[in-house]
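Service request form, structural biology core

Requester: graduate student, group of Dr. S.
Request type: structure prediction, single chain
Budget code: on file
Notes: please return the result as structure tokens.

Sequence provided:
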Amino acid sequence: MKKQIFINLPVADLTKAKTFYEAIGFVNNPQFTDNTAACMVLSEEIFVMLLTHDKFSGFTQKQIADTNKTVAVINSLSCINNDEVNKVADKALAAGGKQTHEPMDYGFMYQRSFADLDGHHWEVFYMDLSKFPNQ
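Core staff response, request fulfilled:
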């Protein structure tokens, strides 16, 4: 079995968060979805668990961060090319996300960044290592 990653995110409005993630290409897995959580699938290895604040609080004794004011993590997703980077970021913005900074082009890597409806920071990028500068 391949290793999988499950990113658990606290969300203020589960329905709106689910709709946002569907808009940018995630698919809901109803087997692991109820009125407190939604399992959003990006690939066979990548999942985002959207959890209501009450549900999320059951997994930690720490206070939930206000990610509209602070950043705790930046989630980065690779894309197959620059066009896919733009499509994902544009869909995120159209679905109510906010651009966190201007697109960045490093020559070998292109990236765009956005925050979801709850302020969780995401970067989508394409990297061509054949263009990586030699040291």
